[in-house]
Automatic annotation (TrEMBL):
Record lineage: Bacteria, Pseudomonadati, Pseudomonadota, Gammaproteobacteria, Alteromonadales
Ranges where the Glycosyl hydrolase family 92 N-terminal domain occurs: 38-301
Originating species: Pseudoalteromonas tunicata D2
Record flagged with keyword Signal: yes
Signal sequence region: 1-21
Name of the protein described by the UniProt record: Alpha-1,2-mannosidase family protein
GO BP field: carbohydrate metabolic process; glycoprotein catabolic process
Amino acid sequence: MKKIVLLTLISGVAMSFNLFATTQKLLAKKEQVTNLQWVDPFIGTGGDGHTFPGAVVPFGMMQLSPDTDTVMRGVDPQPEIYKRCAGYHYDDHTIVGFSHTHFSGTGHSDLGDLLIMPMVDQVLIEPGTAADPDSGYRSRFSHDQEWASPGYYGVELLDSNIKAELTTTERAGMHQYTFRKGEEAHIILDLTTAIYNFENKVIWSDIRKINDHTLVAYRATNGWANNRQMYFAIEFSQPIDSYEFINLDDNRYRCMGCLGKEKHSTIENKQVKEAAGKAIKFVASFNNPTAKPIKVKVALSAVSKSNALENLKAEIPDWNFAHVRKQAEQKWDGYLSKFEAQGTTAQKRQFYTSLYHALQAPSIYQDVNGEYRGIDGEIHQGKDHIHYTLFSLWDTYRALHPLLTYIAPDRVGDMVQSMLDHYQQSYDKMLPIWSFHGHETWTMIGYHAVSVIADAYLKGIRNFDTKLALEAVLATSNSPIYDAINEYKEFGYVPMDVLPESVSITLEYAYDDFTIARLLEAMGKPNDAKAYFQRAMSYKNVFDHSVGYMRGRDSKGNWDPEFNPEEAKYMGPFTEGNSNQYTFYVPHDVKGLIDLIGGDKKFEQRLDALFDTHLSDEMIKEHEDIAGLIGNYAHGNEPSHHIAYLYNYAGKPWRTQERIRQIMDTLSSDKPDGLAGNDDVGQMSAWYIFSAMGFYPVAPGDLSYAFGAPQLPSIALNLSNGNVFKVEANKLSHSNKYIKSAKLNGQVLKLSFITHQQIMAGGTLLFEMSDKPNKQWGEANADRPPSLSN
């Protein structure tokens, strides 16, 4: 960390007493500048990064953030929702309001629960459109008057001259609105909005006024997850002077007061305390709004309104906005201090913002009393662990979950136990595939929860039910109901006439089976492990020697007659990719793949061809997720993330060093569009953190990390066992991108990989960098990263 530099002005005669006294006070405080300063939540909010800039704490259930467009009932045309999967996009110029749940970096949209928006004088109950913001309660804004930092977001709403500020705890958030004009302030609570690409998402909602400060609300939605339920406790910092309940379906609303009569028939009834329906809104009105800021506290619960009230009382008991913000910053500082990185300002901004994004999920999904809503829809008690949600496992098993074993190992066991909760509660007795908020979406392929479980267990993280974990892993990998597992076991591959994306599924099953074998081996079950090691070789069954690529085949063994290695066809043999990319998806046995392709030289040539051969738009037009292209390499999508590291396995680590620098220089920056594709719940960010350090987990579960090349001059990782693992890159520069030599704790390192045990032991990994490649380093077979075949 940098210490604040105190500039002491010394004159030739004497120093003033006041300056001396001030200096002494500052020196006594020993104030430090923390890594918070390097985080820019706007990185990734442009392009297709799909991150949000709002307030959140590490692993928080509450993600309180602005929405620049949402799907509205009866509004046409609908917004380009893929661009706004997180509710916010940097290109937009109006804000609809602030909602309390968001995804970070996903390629799919949902959430956006309970939108809140302040306004002045005139009550508007529809949001209006981006083309005509004056038609509704949305407001124009400017990035010049917008601020975000860990745990905080602020913006000037230009149309109403209101300063809006947000901060959060794990389960609650606080809004602070400073009104600079107007005789009356209004705050709308809109339960109808959605971050999703169809209307009529709300199944049912209700809102009830408890007293002149407090409301409770509920809504159930159909979206990516069906019948997803959320409860809210809402409290205002001052009494509500007048209010309205609005039910758009009935084309009427009940009110106390006379707001908005010109648009709706009105039933005035001072006894009305609640409203229910599919299109419910509430407007709270306050007199003399410029006297002091109006604050709103909101807490979430997936269980009940009473639990939401309990969460609110427990986490934000008072109205001290600055204190809540400070607490959020302290929580972030605790995690951001896990690393001490040196480099340019842009490099540190990218590094620490990546760390910030990597710490947002999986997120807490449990109330302060321990209750949560399970995958079965029932209420459960997390007796001995915190229950987590949001497992985007096709993305995050690769680098995010391995990263969490170093920076949040105390949470990893609870995350695994949460997966086991899912297994026990699911009708199908399956571990999660892509789940959130007590729902399984069945999105993407593989059964990658087994990779996360095996990697944690093999690293010594075992504070979960290991016996149940083994049961769940075996049951999931043999499930008769999931994605042609029976055919996979029968044929040794998934036939393309049985299931689309068959080649990708086969390859990912094979990797998952490798991790199960490793787990069984570590649990003292060598015979069972042997069967899974054999299953892990199934990748060979979809490699067509006649063309040299992974290729679809049917249940009779016939190869795909329409094969084109560059085409990424929707519902074709590959998942969000093509054969060029997926042929390299054998992370657990790269040596075996090299042999299939024809040896080291041919393998290197194939890697070069992947990076150097232009991929036309025509070949990927059916997949908007394929982004961040260097030739056929698609950094914006996960199947490519390990590929640059594969040169190591052919004895050419210097080629990996070239490719990593190429990716870093061309596909990442510290700008809003600085991510090459969806951050995918932190996976892209985790790739950056590992790659900046100079190594990457090609095959989580084998406990080795293939070397790339360090991208920052120094990065220290403060480990949970008290050790510090430091990576230093001497003479690193734009031209000095190659590793000349390496030493680990003073000992010459010939291997082109490092192990988990070496990292946890702490010490210093020292790289001497050069502008010329060392073509002998890591060339010998014995010096290459491990593969199943050797």
